[in-house]
Fold each of these.
Amino acid sequence: MNLSLPPPDILLGGLVRGSIYGLVALGYTMVYGILGMINFAHGEIFMIGMFACIYALGFFSTYLGTGVATSLALSAFVAMIFSAGFGYANERIAYRKLRKAHILAPLTSAIGLSIILQNFVWLTVSKNNINFPRLYSEPLNQVAFTIAGAHCNYLQLLVLGTAVALMALLYFFILHTRLGIALRATAQDQLMAGLVGISVNKTIGLTFIVGSALAAIAGVMVSMYLGVAGYNFGYIWGLKAFTAAVLGGIGNIPGAVLGGFIIGMTEDVTCFYVDAQWRNCVTFIILMVVLILRPRGILGERVADKV
């Protein structure tokens, strides 16, 4: 075991990975905050964003001849639209008719939809991983600058900067806009929100749309960062993001972000000190210890008492 301090590059990699976990975790925590339910199909929405972006890149570069930056931006937008559409359909199919049913009904429905989406991509797109076009990722792998010995390339800077900016934007949206106030009111009491003129169904649908769009951007960044996309990525990354949401305090937006960074840093530091094969084990041990000491997560849970 290496007992020296982890290199700055390891810590930077943990922050980048953690920012993605946090971005995906926001979708879990938003849905739980407003419905008191876990959206287990959220990971597959994340995965769909990956494939939508890759195919959109092929279309824009082949048929429209757009530049690299323009194609990437347009493809990321297409991925957001696709994932938002699937997320809204998920709410209509798996949740809307089952809100007042036993808690196991929407849970089972969401798990079933997750399996359907994963197998649909497996059967119709590819059983193997698909490479992300290097034309769009390789130029970003050049070192942008060095801080305290950490070599940060443009891709890491893009991932970390985009994730943090979107998290901050969502936090501002929730706290300082009329739609954000409607979301918080619906999370507090759906009946009273409806009585004061808030469309509860539209507000809940908006929650799924926003969370799914954020997951799509995270999927695009993961496929760029790793260079591949696979049908099972939604399960792997979705489970880690859900763990981050629980660790930070599910239902709490800052908690989801904090949990994501903790999970990301834990994984990379474990890889350095022990071995990559131990990172999942160490992550879930930390989760269990935190939940034993603080059952509501690190930052608590703001909306669970109503459920």
Note: The radius of gyration is 19 Å.
Amino acid sequence: MKFSCANTDFLEAVSTASKAASASTSFPVLEMLLIEADEGIKITGNNLEIAVEYYIPATVYEKGSISVNAKIICEIIRRMPEGVIFFETGSDSNVKITCGELDFTIIGISPEDFPKIPDIDVSQNIVTTGEVISNIVKKTSFAIAQTDSKPILTGIKIDVKDDMIKAVAIDGYRMAISYTKNENTMPETGFIIPGRSLIEFSRISGGTKDKVVINISDKNVLFEYGNCRFLSRLLDGEFINYENILPKSHNYSAVIDASEFIKSVDRAALLADAEGNKTPVRVVYEADKVTVMCNTGKGNMKDIIAVKAEGTESFEVGYNCKFLMDALKATDCDKIKIEIVGSVNPTVIKPSEDDEAFTFIVLPVRLK
């Protein structure tokens, strides 16, 4: 195999494909990238959970393929001067990479050992944008379960109908629902994608308005974006009936400045974090104010925020400081609405306006 291409194109390709290469594994082949030269260059990473294919133009002198270590090839190309690189394999699987007066030789392995990407039988496809995917991730990623004790909760449930994409994540302590309008009308469908997969693709698409085509099959989902194809397995199983978790009414509702609330909880975090986040932040909701407090062995904190509230009752609610902060930071709006049923019931966070951009739920911590 022998080809030449722009250094910048090759770096973009190997950097993107390497997102699907395992950093450390008992199967060294999963740490590799497959480089194939035909009409152009296709570079593939595959860790058996996600796979990324990236295509770039090149001058191909001799067709062929080789597998190389993802981390090594990325670092080599990143350190090369700008210009055209020449890539050539020998009969002993050695790979020679040259740019100007600089050349590297690294050891490759047979492409036959590289895991094949499965063909998918597409049953539905959706046309959207990188911006829509980025918004879904921003609004739901904080509530994805981080452990595999309930594997289905490590995923994001996506439901599509007409021009609306609804995404749901639950980790047992928090729930996030995002509602994102799409430019195009879409077929009604739904699937559960591993949260890590959607986060990784969001990084690749970069939140741009460029087109993303989502192809859905029974077991996999394939994202097509520019020169990139991103394949992820889907999670199989029944998602939690999250509609039953949503409170049907509330006894207290207040509109509060989101940035002021975030700053106040962040101040409380100075003390809560000093004790390993074991001490809850206390929030007292009243008719005209919200009081944020944190009392620890290292000190006390109290802050008051003026609000406009409905209802005359007051409630003191305890929260895990990080869980509350994660939800508040994901709101991305000037003012939010807080709805309370009682001191031991879930707290609902919504936009202050009537539009359904998101609904977040944070479970309280029992106060002593």
Note: Residues 248-362 form a domain with the DNA Polymerase III; Chain A, domain 2 fold (CATH 3.10.150.10).
Amino acid sequence: MKHSIDPAVTGTAKTTSPPAATSRDIDAAQRVFQLEAEALRAMGDSLDQRFVKAINLIDIAAGRAAVTGMGKSGHIARKISSTLSSTGTPSFYVHPGEASHGDLGMITHDDVVIALSNSGETPELNDVIDYCRRFSVPLIAITGRTQSTLAENSDCTLLLPAVDEACTMGLAPTTSTTAMLALGDALAIALLDRRGFTAEDFQVLHPGGQLGHNLLRVADLMHHKTDLPLIDAESMVGDAILIMTTKGFGCAGVVDAAGQLAGIITDGDLRRHMSDTLLQLTCGHIMTPNPKTIRAQALASEALGLMNASQITSLFVAEDRKPTGILHIHDCLRAGIA
């Protein structure tokens, strides 16, 4: 006799197919996008010297940017702090509740505080505000109300646009937090541009993940010094074959008397000149002149693109036509360049 098993007892749930999307669902989503897009446009149109003042306060601070907020604003504050740090502006997040129990000590006189609160009346921020005023720590407010405790006690107020929350009840932070996030991005990128933060700087702060891989330079991956498969133009082809075999790149760079890269010998060059007299020829006789090269400071992704476009597997690195390294396509693939 079979017994039915109650899913509530076993912890399993019945599998049901999700309902098909309705026009009401799509209408709700489109309303969210429309309201949040309106907020971003309004905020962009309203930017003025207060934004410049905020940038100045962060830029001249000898310390770091301490970003704080409670609830949903706190989640946005964490992201803003992370974006600032990754783009050249040292930053950290301070939880306002923990700040009241000792973490105010994280904030020094050299720092600048960025506080997020749509209402400007978040009670957990009061101790942070008092601390900034007591010790003359610059305070930047991101809020939706100029007539608020946060705005009235800040050195600079960045005002959020007066646009309804996307929530149909007007309660859940949606439009306001999107505006906060975008404003944080704007601060970070404006500071990045002002400080001349480069792709090289970005790579230093992002060594892991696909971002770090995409910013690797040829110099980071290339083989050099004794690994280079080089031979002079007057040497015999037999010597070139030996170098191609021992170095393992499937080619040999041919250099002239001045040490400049005059040509390259590949397996294809050997096949094209295959005859009984091949080993009696010089490297200069069978080489392909003016081979493609790349700079050591070029992105590795650029080198991979050049190799793919030219249908080659190795690429010499040269400065003023003098070879300084060689890059194989497998070096790029092993590093995750794609």
Note: The chain has two domains: 26-197, 218-334.
